[in-house]
Specification:
Radius of gyration: 28 Å
Strand order of the largest sheet: 16-15-14-13-10-9-18-17
Number of helices: 16
Strand content: 15-25%
Largest sheet: 8 strands, parallel
Number of strands: 26
Distance between the termini: 101 Å
Shape: globular
């Protein structure tokens, strides 16, 4: 063969290879498969892939990998989707394999799928418990660790304005990573950032609750690698990472809204209807079906379409997505947003599938009701007349939150004031396990606790002492230790989620270092740091029993106790110092003559009277 002919043959062969290579690359870019990868060795061998690409519904998928079989293929209403049921056998080895999508025997698309090796003891991930204290963070308002991602030109909202309460301020994952030493040093043992997933909305995208891609980190917060780094560094510092999940609704700019897989993928797709927010219909034996329907299927707001979890493919997508994040990040828990707005059968399936895969895991649901009967309904093991039987151990204790601030701000009367706190705790008989309730003074959706307490720092110290010594899992909103408040605009979410002092370069005050803080800010920060670190090793606070005495003359006394130790907490609402006789508490103090003040180290005698400072909560270890 002469050289020119050989050259022509080589060029032709090279161009064919180039065409094939280019076709594969283009196919990979235009093909979306979710979840993008999975793991071998999961308890549940089933895996459903959602595939999206032009006309992919008119193809037939093929897999050739030992241990992996296609059980069933499902077409959707849109020809641009396929749902593939796979079985991943127990002994399947980690590795990559092509999924070919063929039409008329020819591969139209090819996707390189990966089954990964699980981390050792991945199924034994430990969730948060009453031994933890969770630090709740709104990432955009906490700390800006990387100014280069403040503006992403490809996103719909492309401005940064710290003066705009509802605009983006630039806080990010790197800012949280940089602050972990501070958080751990304060004595917190877990962090709960509000959602970090993509929120590609036109405005108010900072809060994270209008997700537009369940598998993508919002680039203004950082990258997937940074999210993993956050999880790893949390573990290194003894902090659990809690994921804020949203399965009830998505953002209206979610990529699938332009091409829904099924006509019933979302509720009311053609006639937007807003939920009535009447959450009691979940339990109400007299509730009208139309009210139940609107509550569960109505959109949360106009920009948040309601997801229809009665569609089995969407339900599976959401369940697998949650498990994917647990496995990817090695999470220490999930906080589920707007819990009672989703369909009950789905919530049972969602919670139990997660707990079955991770038996020691924790899930807490947001049920914003101040009625303990409503809050208790969702807790695992609760016998309900509707038959709901989910696997979620924790609910958020909104009834106690309301009682706390009201008890401290109301005048003392027979049925007002601190007696409300006493009576709220007396309702614990309705819960299957009160120790699993999430207790808090505030969060990102309500007034700051200091605002609830009329900006009274002494009352704040009393409230935080209560939260950190009563039964349950405490949660503290970022900046409480720096006296953040929103009294200028009560109820305004943008101001409630205000910037943490020191989170931005050039801030005059810095709560991370203490520079520029007022005397009151320094006092509360130091107080909380000492109490939080004391609480870390106090099993009597984590798991002990509770005994409380009816309030009298503005004083409320309760004990946390076990066979090994006892702690006495006294809340004194009076504006003057009080001498409290200890004789009334003899049923638990019998045989004990001394107590040590946890905060001051002062030792006092319990044989007669103890001195209570005005407007204070005192914690004593009984000796």
């Amino acid at each position: 063969m002469n050289l020119p002919a050989l050259h022509r043959s080589f060029v032709k062969y090279f161009l064919v290879l180039l065409f094939i290579s280019t076709a594969i690359v283009v196919s990979a870019q235009s093909l979306r498969v979710e979840p993008m990868h999975w793991w071998v060795g999961m308890k549940n061998p089933s895996l459903q892939l959602m595939v999206h690409a032009a006309d992919v519904g008119e193809t037939v998928p093929f897999v050739n990998y030992p241990g992996v079989t296609i059980k069933k293929i499902h077409k959707a209403d849109s020809k641009n989707y396929l749902f593939i049921d796979l079985i991943v056998a127990k002994n399947t080895k980690p590795g990559r394999f092509p999924i070919q999508f063929k039409r008329n025997g020819k591969a139209v698309y090819t996707y390189d799928y990966e089954l990964m090796q699980r981390k050792p003891n991945a199924s034994q991930l430990k969730g948060f418990t009453a031994a933890d204290v969770i630090y709740l963070i709104t990432p955009d308002r906490f700390a800006n660790g990387d100014a280069s991602n403040d503006v992403v030109s490809t996103m719909r909202e492309t401005t940064i304005d710290r003066k705009n309460d509802y605009g983006r301020h630039g806080g990010d994952i790197r800012g949280i990573i940089n602050s972990l030493d501070y958080i751990a040093g304060m004595g917190f043992t877990a962090i709960w950032p509000t959602p970090l997933l993509e929120n590609d909305m036109k405005q108010s995208s900072y809060h994270g609750y209008a997700i537009t891609d369940y598998y993508k980190v919002d680039p203004r917060f950082g990258t997937m690698e940074e999210y993993k780094e956050l999880a790893d560094k949390c573990r290194q510092k003894g902090l659990k990472l809690v994921f804020d999940g949203v399965v009830n609704h998505s953002g209206s700019q979610y990529w699938w809204m332009k091409d829904l897989p099924f006509k019933n993928w979302i509720n009311y797709p053609d006639s937007l209807r807003i939920t009535n927010h009447r959450r009691t219909v979940n339990q109400d034996i007299y509730a009208a079906e139309s009210d139940k329907e609107l509550m569960v299927r109505g959109w949360f707001v106009e920009t948040m379409p309601d997801l229809n979890q009665s569609n089995p493919f969407l339900a599976e997508f959401l369940i697998q997505n949650s498990i994917w994040w647990v496995e990817t990040l090695g999470l220490g828990g999930i906080r589920q947003d707007t819990y009672p707005y989703s369909q009950k059968k789905f919530l049972e399936q969602w919670t139990c599938r997660i707990v079955n895969e991770y038996p020691q895991f924790s899930i807490v649901g947001e049920e914003w009701s101040t009625n303990p009967l409503i809050a208790a309904y969702w807790q695992k093991g609760k016998a309900n007349n509707t038959g709901y039987n989910g696997c979620m151990k924790s609910t958020m204790d909104f009834p106690l939150q309301q009682a706390l601030w009201q008890s401290l701000t109301e005048p003392e009367e027979w049925d007002k004031g601190i007696v409300k706190l006493y009576e709220a705790l007396a309702n614990d008989f309705v819960y299957t396990n009160p120790k699993d309730l999430l207790v808090f003074g505030d969060n990102h959706d309500m007034n700051r606790i200091l605002t609830f307490l009329n900006n009274d720092v002494d009352l704040l110290q009393m409230a935080m002492t209560y939260i950190l010594t009563i039964r349950g899992i405490p949660q503290v909103y970022y900046g409480t230790e720096a006296l953040l408040e929103n009294s200028a605009k009560p109820g305004d979410h943008g101001l409630i989620r205000t910037d943490f002092p020191g989170g931005w370069q050039g801030d005059k005050a810095n709560a991370f270092t203490g520079v520029g803080l007022s005397a009151d800010q320094q006092r509360i920060q130091a107080y909380l740091k000492k109490l939080l670190n004391w609480r870390k090793d106090k099993k009597v606070i984590h798991d002990g029993s509770t005994l409380h005495f009816a309030p009298s003359n503005g004083i409320y006394v309760y004990f946390r106790y076990s066979k090994q130790e006892k702690v006495m907490v006294v809340m004194n609402k009076n504006t003057k110092e009080v001498q409290l006789s200890t004789g009334r508490f003899s049923e638990i103090l019998k045989g004990h003559g001394q107590a040590v003040n946890v905060m001051t180290g002062e030792q006092v005698s319990l044989h007669d009277k103890v001195t209570l400072p005005a407007r204070s909560a005192t914690v004593w270890e009984i000796r």
